TrEMBL record:
Residues 104-247 form the Exportin-1/Importin-beta-like domain. SUPFAM superfamilies: ARM repeat. The keyword Nucleus applies. It comes from the Eukaryota. InterPro entries: ARM-like, ARM-type_fold, Exportin-1/Importin-b-like, Importin_beta-like_NTR, TPR_TNPO3_IPO13_2nd, TPR_TNPO3_IPO13_4th. GO terms for biological process: protein import into nucleus. One of its GO terms (cellular component) is nucleus. The keyword Transport applies. Keywords: Nucleus, Transport. This is Exportin-1/Importin-beta-like domain-containing protein. It is found in: Nucleus. Belongs to the importin beta family. It comes from Taxus chinensis (Chinese yew).
Length: 986
């Protein structure tokens, strides 16, 4: 090793030591940066390998170097010179032998490195039969290191589909085929190790790993295979239990993986597996009994045999087996046979386990079962409608008692724990997730039982818990709240015609005590059943009671007031006609909330919910009454805004954005939800001088302008062409202020105006001026990719506006003088990394090509050709550069869409432009075959083809060009999509 590499080696060891042990954060960061840079160097190969072979290297150095070597093999193998494969393979093999007994973290990294090497290097270079035969030879000749070689055997199939390994897609597919064809060799190797007791756990883990790659092995052959028998035997061994479960779960998946003959073809193996799994039921039942006794505080009683208190991981493993069996065989189980009901009973026991993590393993099964029982497509084989309905009813009859039991088994899990006030934020989040999951299960049960039946079962718990609330007895609010939560959870399944249980539930709500969590759930339940309130004949009589419950909740806690505001919005939406005569009472609630009087604990956002609620009721009024109600609704928002404007005229710096945005947000909700276009237009015209004053005072302030533009946007949407002259005044203000303050929201508001008024001939004059003014100024702001990156919101809203112009007023936009420079501007910004801005630019380009091929847009074809053709080579180059790495992979779909649209309009010309572009990429990055494949895909698109395989061919070029950082830099350096100058295409 050269003196330079010795120096690097010493520095590396010092950096690793500093990273783990230096007391100063800055020094640790510097060490981390140096180590990351080191991993990218060519020296990292030899230095890491040297330190791994060095007996004096400490554990931290070994871990770092093994990770580095693994990553280098995965990502940078191509930077090694020809002839390096054998020395590298032998070095990694020797390291496997060295670390056979540990450290395990290091050994695993070496195994992954060898698996990556196997993907890089074709089978013939490993000798006859590829990596599996090489591994077989090593196992046969060096049995002392068998633990390491078995781990490598486990890792190989796990890495078969890894995209961390920088190989070409074709080589990845080839490697997968090599491994799949070697499954029998792998099974033979594993079988040869079975007679060594200490290897059996490792053998079963490797067997599970290879089963994921196994295809086409007859079930009858597997059913009697010694590895399968070993997995089954492992269920009787404490030491082998978990690895046996892993293997059997993979066998279950194997039988359900969709072979041509379906599950029937796999029955020889299914018939071996299911009885063995069911043989664990007594053991699980005993552990369940012990767990339930322990949960009840009776664990020490003589009735519980301590031998049945299993290790928790063993219990989880058994539960996993039952759950996997249920998930994979759900259609068989849904037949309702005697055998399937035994499996159902086992799954019910798992669901009843007191540990939520164990019980939840079955939740997916219950969802799948209800889907199979209730969806018509699962009964197609029964022929006519009568036979289908008869079979559905037969199955429902069988499974109805099971789902009734299921409701009882899961309902208790939503109850607040006694120590809920002491729960951490993470524990509270877990509790909420549990409640959501239980709610989903209850909905599943309702699909089988009917919503009325599920409601009847759950409501019994509620009536029992709530009946003592008003009697002065000692009671547990948690039980009532839990039952009410479950009632709320199934609201979607309960028909609006239900008239027995819900009236009793609603009647009880007003009797509930002022307990915050209970009131919060009561409000959410009211909101969930708002449609029932809106349609049930007797529901009107409950509305005063409901309003009383909601106002009580508004004064109890912040959470309950938020729930009450949300519920009131839902009730007003569903009952708008019934509440039209109660506006005075609703206005009183709103005024108290807006003025923060009356003890209400409503937040600013909650008050907006009330405005939305009142807006919906006003919408139900006749126009003449709606206008007066709308004026009254606007006053609490307009008055404080006018006061702020007046005071800010004298001392503007004293006022924050919040003092403007709170009343503006209220107006925004009014404009959005009062669906009386003419009334809103009159109100907006009256309020406009106030809003214009805000534009004048605060145009420099992003927060205020965004809220104000949003309010104007909703007014435009609601009023449409009823806005009259106010719209031109508003656009004049936007135009002037944008040139001074460059707020992106001005562009967004303009795009909303274009959407509504773009096709109106009477608006053409001032809309044309608006378009020219806004785009001219924006193009001046976005002259380089750096400008785009520093102003992504402007870029996003600019090209959203441009797309709207193409769609709604192409007659104003496409022939305009601003169209060509805007296309140039879009080409500069395509490679912006900002997701929304990039999507808007690509959508704009797509819209250009779409309008050129649309029936109504053919008149613009010549104009578009005159703009696109001189830029076509450059645009093609930018798009291919984006495909090949200038944009993240998440943008591939949009980039390909533009390329395909361009190909559909210009046909073989695009192929020629692409050929010119792709020829710039050096052969060190892509092969001639990969070039040809890409161009063939484009040619197919040019001839009108459009298929997933075609898209896949285009994606493969991206995969090839991104396979590692070195290749990506070569490709981007050759195409330079960020530094192009326009070239004219003849």
């Amino acid at each position: 090793m050269s003196s330079q590499k010795v120096k690097v080696r010493d520095t590396l060891q010092e950096a690793v030591k500093a990273l783990y042990h230096h007391p100063e954060h800055q020094v640790r960061n510097q060490a981390n940066v140096w180590l990351q840079e080191f991993q990218r160097t060519l020296e990292a190969w030899e230095v890491s390998d040297s330190l791994l072979h060095d007996a004096n290297s400490n554990l931290e150095t070994l871990i770092f170097c093994s990770q580095t070597l693994k990553t280098k093999v995965q990502r940078d193998f191509e930077e090694l010179p020809q002839g390096t494969f054998v020395p590298l393979r032998d070095s990694l093999k020797n390291l496997l032998k060295k670390f056979c007994k540990g450290p395990s973290k290091v050994r695993t990294q070496i195994c992954i490195a060898l698996a990556a090497l196997a993907m890089h290097v074709p089978a013939q270079e490993w000798g006859g039969g590829g990596v599996l035969n090489w591994l077989s030879d090593e196992l046969g000749s060096q049995r002392g290191y068998i633990h390491s070689f078995l781990e490598l055997l486990t890792v190989l199939p796990q890495e078969a589909y890894s995209h961390k390994i920088a190989v070409r897609p074709e080589r990845r597919r080839q490697f997968q085929k090599e491994l799949i064809s070697s499954v029998e060799v792998a099974f033979n190797l594993l079988t040869s190790c079975l007679n060594v007791e200490e290897l059996q756990e490792q053998v079963l883990e490797a067997f599970a790993s290879w089963l994921r790659l196994s295809h086409g092995i007859p079930a009858s052959m597997l059913a009697s295979h010694s590895l399968v028998l070993a997995a089954i035997s492992g269920l009787s061994s404490e030491q082998l239990f978990e690895s046996a479960v892993n293997a059997i779960c993979e066998l279950i998946h194997y039988t359900a993986s969709g072979s041509p003959g379906g599950l029937a073809e796999q029955m020889p193996l299914v018939q071996v597996l299911v009885p063995q799994i069911m043989g664990l039921r007594n053991r699980f039942s005993a552990s369940l009994k012990a767990a339930l006794m322990e949960k009840q505080g009776k664990g020490g009683e003589s009735g519980v045999d301590q031998a049945y208190i299993e290790d928790e991981e063993i219990v989880k493993a058994m539960a996993r087996l039952f759950a996997e069996m249920g998930d994979c065989y759900v259609e068989l189980i849904a037949s309702g046979s005697n055998e399937s009901m035994l499996i159902i009973e086992a799954l019910v026991e798992v669901t009843s386990h007191p540990e939520y993590d164990i019980a939840a393993m079955t939740f997916n099964f219950w969802h799948s079962l209800q889907t199979v029982l209730t969806k018509r497509e699962y009964y197609a084989s029964f022929g006519n409608d009568a036979a289908i309905e008869a079979e559905k009813e037969r199955r429902r009859t069988i499974f109805r008692p099971i789902f009734e039991l299921l409701v009882s088994l899961v309902s208790f899990r939503v109850m607040y724990p006694l120590d809920y006030e002491e729960l951490s934020r993470e524990d509270l989040a877990d509790f909420k997730r549990t409640r959501y999951a239980v709610g989903d299960i209850l909905l599943d049960a309702s699909s089988v039982l009917s919503g009325e039946m599920a409601l009847k079962i759950i409501s019994n718990n509620f009536f029992q818990a709530a009946s003592t609330a008003g009697n002065g007895e000692s009671w547990d609010w948690r039980s009532a709240e839990a039952a009410l939560y479950c009632i709320r959870a199934i609201a979607r399944a309960v028909p609006t015609s239900e008239g027995t249980v819900l009236p009793q539930v609603i009647g009880f709500l007003v009797k509930l005590p002022l307990q915050p969590q209970l009131l919060q759930t009561a409000c959410l339940t009211i909101g969930a059943y708002s449609k029932w309130l809106g349609s049930a004949p007797a529901a009107s009589s409950f509305l005063p009671t409901i309003i009383e419950v909601l106002t009580r909740a508004m004064s109890t806690s912040e959470d309950s007031s938020t729930a009450a505001a949300m519920a009131l919005r839902h009730v007003c939406d569903a009952c708008r006609d019934k509440l039209a005569g109660s506006l005075d009472g609703l206005f009183l609630i709103y005024h108290k909330a807006a003025s923060r009087e009356g003890g209400y604990k409503l937040s600013i956002e909650d008050a907006l919910q009330l405005i939305e609620a009142l807006s919906m009721v006003i919408t139900a009024l006749p126009p003449e009454h709606a206008k007066k109600a709308l004026e009254a609704l606007c006053i609490p928002a307009v008055t404080p805004l006018q006061q702020v404007i007046a005071q800010a005229t004298r001392s503007p710096q004293q006022f924050s954005a919040n003092q403007y945005t709170v009343p503006i947000d209220r107006l925004s909700n009014i404009f959005r939800y009062v669906n009386h276009p003419e009334a809103v237009a009159d109100a907006f015209q009256t309020i406009w001088p106030t809003l214009k004053a805000v534009f004048d005072q605060r145009a420099w302030d992003v927060a205020t302008m965004e809220r104000l533009c949003r309010a104007c946007k909703y007014a435009v949407r609601t009023c449409g062409k009823s806005m009259g002259i106010t719209i031109s005044d508003m656009l004049q203000v936007v135009q002037v202020q944008y040139q001074v303050h460059h707020q992106s929201c001005f562009l967004y508001l303009s795009s909303e105006v274009i959407k509504i008024f773009g096709s109106d001939p009477s608006c053409g004059h001032y809309l044309g001026g608006l378009i020219n003014s806004l785009f001219s100024h924006t193009i001046g702001l976005l002259k380089s990719i750096q400008d785009f990156t520093s102003r992504p919101d402007i870029a996003d809203d600019c090209f959203l506006l441009a797309s709207r112009c193409i769609r709604y007023c192409p007659h104003l936009f496409v022939p305009s003088t601003i169209f060509p420079p805007l296309v140039d501007c879009s080409m500069i910004g395509i490679t912006i990394q900002h997701r929304e801005a990039c999507t808007s630019i690509l959508t704009f380009l797509n819209d250009i090509f779409d309008v050129a091929t649309s029936i109504g847009g053919k008149q613009y074809r010549s104009v578009i050709d005159n703009v696109i053709l001189p830029r076509a080579t450059s645009l093609t180059r930018i798009l291919i550069g984006s495909l090949a790495g200038a944009l993240p992979e998440s943008r591939l779909e949009e980039v390909i869409s533009v390329l395909m649209s361009m190909t559909r309009i210009y046909g073989i010309q695009v192929v020629n432009w692409a050929r010119e572009v792709i020829s710039l990429i050096p052969s060190t990055a892509i092969t001639d075959g990969e070039r040809s494949s890409f161009l063939e895909a484009l040619s197919s698109a040019a001839s009108g083809a459009n298929s997933p395989a075609l898209i896949g061919s285009l994606e493969e070029l991206s995969d090839v060009c991104r396979r590692n950082k070195t290749v990506q830099e070569i490709v981007q350096g050759a195409l330079q999509p960020l530094q192009l100058t326009l070239t004219t295409t003849s």
